[in-house]
Design a protein that fits this description.
The structure is a homodimer of 199-residue chains. Chain A contains 6 helices and 12 strands. Chain A has 199 residues and is an alpha+beta fold.
Chain lengths: 199, 199
């Protein structure tokens, strides 16, 4: 949320990443994006000493910066860049955790176009190095969330590259993924699932 | 390195993103900042399957974005934010690796003001969760680089908070840290030290 003080200067009360959503379509009627729910969840995990996981800042390509006297540097021209990694990473019980989170309004399948080639490549790389890597998938309209190990995503990605379907069916996600029950605190308790399936 | 504008406010000249370097003075005669050397090193590690470590994007607070027709969204007003974590993290042999890199032109000590309270807090948190966490310290003028485990940094930080000196002496860094020899590829082979002291 942004508001203006009498001087005309704009102030911002929310996080950078949340702000960007103001300029983009919002999903569902819940008023909370998957990112907001995960940020709240990760904050809960950090505060309760459960895991230290952060969302990475949105990558920005800066073109022009002004250095006005007596005030902070102002970025006057910049562009959003495509991320070269997944959005979330951190540590749980000493292990490296890495994941991406995506949502769809579809009810019966999850389009693979939600992922980019170099995110997939990054997931392959971290898996090779012993990371715990997965995706968190929300069916916004159904309000159902699943954790799917990245190895399965890679299989579906390969299928697509070999001429197969451009999405994962909901049934496949139910079969290979793990349903995450929703709560109040934490909202999306994915570490419970991580603990169950990786430790 | 910081310098002051006529208004008296201090500006940092060292920024995380390479792009920002276009607007700011360069160091020494080497033409390479510590960040550039580490980015090249991490790229080498990724390409050779040694470790997957990335620098996080510079956190930016976005205030205004334009959406011109037929072209990409342009950020028209944004500000640099202070990072809430360290700059680098990733995975090596399944373990979570987390570090911050800083340089000084001093020759006999390393000022603790290079670190921020919440970076220190973040290091404490990840150590508690079993992470490998350290700082990479470059004495720019001497062109010497050391890896210092975050536990030692925390001790020096505590000493400062208790009224002690506001820096670590070079001697202390030599004693508790590990010298990293410089090379061509990779330029700063810190993983060699990590392998030796943590595995």
């Amino acid at each position: 949320m942004t508001f203006k003080y009498p001087g005309g200067k704009t102030y911002k009360t929310k996080q950078e990443s949340e702000l960007v959503h103001h300029f983009q379509p919002n999903y569902g009627n819940r008023g909370m994006t998957l990112e907001e729910d995960l940020n709240a969840t990760n904050e809960y995990y950090r505060e309760h000493g459960i895991a230290i996981i952060h969302k990475k800042p949105t990558p920005i390509q800066i073109v022009r910066v002004d250095y006005p006297k007596r005030s902070a540097a102002v970025i006057k021209e910049a562009y959003f860049k495509q991320a070269s990694t997944t959005d979330y990473n951190g540590v749980y019980r000493g292990k490296y955790i890495d994941f991406e989170a995506k949502e769809t309004r579809n009810k019966t399948s999850f389009p693979l176009q939600n992922f980019h080639e170099h995110q997939i490549y990054h997931m392959k790389q971290v898996l090779d190095h012993g990371a715990i890597c997965f995706v968190i998938l929300r069916f916004t309209t159904l309000n159902e969330i699943y954790l799917l190990d990245a190895n399965h995503l890679l299989t579906f990605w390969e299928r697509q590259k070999n001429g197969g379907r451009k999405s994962m069916t909901k049934q496949e996600i139910e079969q290979y993924g793990h349903y995450i029950s929703l709560g109040y605190q934490p909202r999306i308790d994915y570490i419970k699932v991580v603990e169950k399936i990786y430790f």
